[in-house]
Design a protein that fits this description.
Layout: H1 2-9, E1 16-18, E2 21-28, E3 31-38, H2 45-55, E4 64-69, E5 77-81, H3 89-98, E6 104-109, H4 124-132, H5 137-160, H6 162-169
Parallel strand pairs: 4-6
Antiparallel strand pairs: 1-2, 2-3, 5-6
Length: 170
């Protein structure tokens, strides 16, 4: 959702299929970029990322991965470079395929599902259902409100750099 909103706001269309992804090309503040939505399963998204990075000769430090994060509340975003995956299988896949964790990440908070009554933990099946499920009407309103902020953070990252973007949006 975040990438789609960003691409639309920048006039970028996902008009090609290559490397296991839908891609589009554009420019932000003089910086040429390729946006890609892997068409693989999420836990194999690194395969598409690796193929595209090879095709376009992109180094890991010039890659931005946008992903959901259960450990951030809905609507919160965090930018950083490098680090662990926090258990995100898509990020693990990218790091494994590239042989590097030194890429930019834009973590988008979706919060955690509520635990079952009488339990302090949520099991993996509940988490999978939550991540793949639809937002409630209230959550959707929050999402609609923060999508422009995510897009602004991406533009800031490309135009002013990571430090400025982190200070402004984290």
């Amino acid at each position: 959702m975040c990438l789609n909103y960003f691409a639309r706001s920048q006039g970028i269309r996902f008009d090609k299929r290559q490397g296991g992804a839908r891609t589009g090309a554009g420019e932000v503040d003089g910086t040429s970029l390729i946006v890609a939505r892997p068409q693989t399963y999420m836990n194999r998204s690194g395969q598409a990322v690796d193929r595209l990075m090879g095709k376009f000769q992109v180094s890991p430090d010039n890659l931005l991965v946008i992903h959901d994060d259960l450990d951030l509340s809905l609507g919160k975003i965090r930018l950083r470079q490098g680090g662990g995956s926090g258990g995100h299988k898509g990020v693990d896949s990218v790091a494994s395929e590239l042989g590097s964790r030194d890429f930019l990440r834009l973590r988008v908070g979706i919060g955690r599902p509520p635990a079952d009554e009488g339990s302090t933990e949520t099991d993996e099946a509940d988490i999978i259902d939550y991540v793949l499920g639809d937002f409630t009407a209230g959550e959707r309103q929050t999402v609609d409100e923060f999508l422009p902020q995510v897009s602004e953070a991406i533009v800031c990252l490309f135009s002013q750099g990571l430090t400025v973007a982190m200070n402004k949006y984290n």
